[in-house]
Please model this.
Amino acid sequence: MESQKICEGDYVLLYLDQRRTYLVRVESGKTFHTHKGFVNFDDLIGRAYGERVSSSLGVEFIVLKPLLRDYILKSIRKTQIIYPKDIALIIMFSGIGPGSRVVEAGTGTGALTTALAHYVRPNGKVYSYELREEFLKAAEKNIKRAGLAGFVELKNKDVTAGIEERDVDAVVLDLATPWLIVPRAYVSLKPSGTMISFSPTIDQVVKTVEALEAENFVDVETVECLMRGMQIARGKTRPQTLMTAHTGYITFARKALKPA
Model:
């Protein structure tokens, strides 16, 4: 069973309020400074998650165990990330789980990669292609911070030149020209495997869907996920004024075998 005590080297989420949280690594002899005073890491080691700790100014923080979404939303960013609302749909529609082998193209800084790795463990693998080396370096740091490096193989290669893996369970694309990869995804996938593409514009979606249908993919579907938070207060409950609306379109498809 995973320890519920905070240890040297653990990442913790220091919670001040819903808008101010800090993902930090616990290192003995060091402190974390905020506008509400500093927190001494030595005061955290050996304590239980969920406990309260006071800063040097007497301000209370709650020490929480980070969730997958914390690692994603607080990742080191070199590019725009895919948001958890879209990642959740991608994971569900892809059908992946423990033991799955997944090809991802367009690593960026590894937000989606981190989520995919989380769900394929303990004996699956994510093979992630990215052309820009500086993005891969940031992604590697984010994936290691989440403790998932053992389930990811980062590849500094151009996926348009080909996908090396075969008989994979899913191919997930976050690229400007996903339709160019559709024939290569078809070859890489096992029969009935899934292909998922995330695109910000509808023109990209149309080209991708046309390519999927031409390549003998079936069950092709495109969705958009909108998530609106609620402001909760007795007698004043209403939708929040601001929301993250359009982020992208998600297209899903399944590989069918071609007629003999």
